[in-house]
Every structure is written in structure tokens, then in C-alpha cells.
Amino acid sequence: MTTTNSTPANDALAEAVQIKHYTPMQLAWRRFRKHRMAMFGLWLLFTLVLYMLFGGYLFSRGYCAPINEELSGEEYANCTDTSLKLQPPSAAHPFGTDVIGRDILARTIYGGQISLLIGISAAIMEVMLGALIGLVTAYYGGWVDNVLMRVTEAMLIIPSLFLLIIGAHFFGGGLPTINFFGRELSGGVVVIVVIIGLTSWMYLARIVRANVLSLREMDYVSASRAMGASDARIIFLHLLPNTTAPLIVSATLGVASAIISEAYVSFLGLGVQGSTATWGNMLDGAYRYLETAPWLWFFPGTLILLTVLGINFVGDGLRDAFDPRSARHL
């Protein structure tokens, strides 16, 4: 009868052999799960998304006195009842009411949906532009690289917040409302998304370019080119899949950055206007009631803080998870 001695060296060797059978995504998931703050951020985001998606069915229903009718959903969130203005948190209105009597709890639910929509849409535009420009500049090089990189550097010089404020000022209020899956959104939503997306792709383009400059010299790229593969096929089927790590991390952090940017301009009164609530425009004017009605800024401000923290924690975890040097933490 033989026995095997379990030593730290033998355990490490057995684990290393087992790791070889994992796919890159499985290895990344293992590393991500060991990142405690990333898992906390993921749980926090999951809770907030549930609040925004399903909170309306639980907390967004009530009697609207001015029209003498029971309302639900976004209609209740936009119900104006000046007789209830600046009511502190209570059983009827757990988050209190604003300066024109609207329920803050309902507005944080539907405003969070718009803030998240702005963040995700702007991040998608950022990733698409950054990835495309980074791939093209690195693959073709020469004058294409020189021209696009000079444009990228010029864009980096201009403060994105300045462009966002200017664009929101001139274009935010002149666009008609749009219907998005049954919801009426002010034209400022589109303006904010486009401006944030057009002013936030530069860093990602440089990261992708640096990554592709090394990938384009790999043997599989040379073999594909020798077999007659088109440039588009090489770029999108061979180079792009191998740059997913920075794209995923950038997209995650881009959502947080876009939410913060929208809050900036909305706080200044230049963001999303009209009846479309966002966490940012809920803070507009709240500085007048910092002491007398703190619930006006506390609840939307706390939700912005928690969302951005959760996204940043997840982004840090993804960055470590996709780092090949993190294999020692498995």
C-alpha cells in the first residue's frame, strides 16, 4: 500500500497542471472571483440594476392630486403636486419630495435608467471609435498612422468637459423629444451620449494601437496574409479578438466616466432637460437646499456614488483578471 505525501510543492505542481486545461476566459474568471472588491462591486451593481429595473413595479405608484387620478410608472414620477413640495422622507414618500412635489424615490428609479442608458451608450461609442482607430493606425502604419495619431493627440489637448458643456449648451435644448421603447426622452440625451462618446475614445485608441503593433508581427497574421486573407478579415477576425481585454476594461470604466460627466453638465443646468429625469439633473438646484432639504441631493448623489464605485471595482477586477502576470494569484 503506497501513500502520497502532500507538500506545498506537490500541491502547486498539481494546480499548475490543472490550470493548463482552462481556457483564457476560465482563467480570467478564476482571477476575477479572487478579487474581493471586484465581487463586491459586481454584487453592488446587480443590486442597483434590480432597483432600477424592478423598483418601478414596487415603489412607483400613487395618487396624483392635481389630476385626481391614480398613476404608476414614469407618469407618477413626473406628477407635480405643489402642495407636497419639499416634504421630508416619510412612509408615503420614503425619499421625500422635490421643489415641485414630485416623488424622489420614483424619480431616482427612472432617472437611474436614463443615467445608465447614457453611460452604456457613450461607452459603446467610445469603444467602437477607439478600437477602430487603434486597429487601423497600427495595422496600416505610415501616413495613416501619422494622420490619425496627430488627430488623436489634438483631441487629447482639448478638455472633454469643456466640449461637453459647450455642446450641451448649443444643442441640448433644440432637439425634439424621442420615443425609446415607449419612453419619451428629451433630445439632450442624444446630445450628451454623442458628445461623451466623441470625446473619450483617445486613450483607448492609443492602448489598442500599442497592442496591435506587436500582434501584427505574429506568425498567424503573416500566415493569414500569405494565404490571401483581406485586410478587413485580418483586422476583425485575428487582431480584434486578441485586444478584447483592454476593450472590456475600457468599456466598464467608460460607463462610470460617462455617468459622472452627465452629472457634471446636468448639475450646471446644461444636461438632460425637460421631464426626463437623470440622477444628474436631480441635483440641479439642490445646492440651494443643502441644509434645509438634504434629501434632494443625498439620495441621487448616493446612488451616483455607489454606481461609480461598483463599476470602478469591477473594472479593477477585470484589469487584474485579464493580466497574464496575475496567474500566480490563481
Number of strands: 4
Large-scale geometry: elongated
Element pattern in H and E:
HHHEEHHHHEEHHHHHHH
Radius of gyration: 25 Å
Q: In CATH terms, what is the fold-level topology?
A: MetI-like fold
CATH architecture: Orthogonal Bundle
> Main β-sheet, in a few words?
2 strands, antiparallel
What would CATH call the class?
Mainly Alpha
Indicate the low-confidence ranges by residue numbers.
none
Query: How does the helix and strand content classify structurally?
Result: mainly alpha
Strand order of the largest sheet: 1-2
Intertermini distance: 33 Å
What's the short story on this structure?
By secondary structure, the protein is mainly alpha-helical. It has helices at residues 8-19, 24-33, 36-59, 74-77, 104-140, 142-157, 160-171, 188-198, 202-215, 219-226, 231-239, 244-267, 279-282, 295-321; strands at residues 61-64, 69-72, 178-180, 183-185. It starts with 7 loop residues before the first helix and ends in a 9-residue tail after the last helix.
Structure description:
The strands form two sheets. The protein has a two-stranded antiparallel ribbon with strand order 1-2. By secondary structure, it is mostly helical. The mean pLDDT is 83. The protein has a single domain (24-71, 103-206, 244-329), classed as MetI-like fold, CATH 1.10.3720. It contains 14 helices and four strands. α3 (36-59) crosses α14, α5 runs parallel beside α8 and α10 packs antiparallel against α11 (231-239). The chain is elongated, with a radius of gyration of 25 Å. It has helices spanning 8-19, 24-33, 36-59, 74-77, 104-140, 142-157, 160-171, 188-198, 202-215, 219-226, 231-239, 244-267, 279-282, 295-321; strands at 61-64, 69-72, 178-180, 183-185.
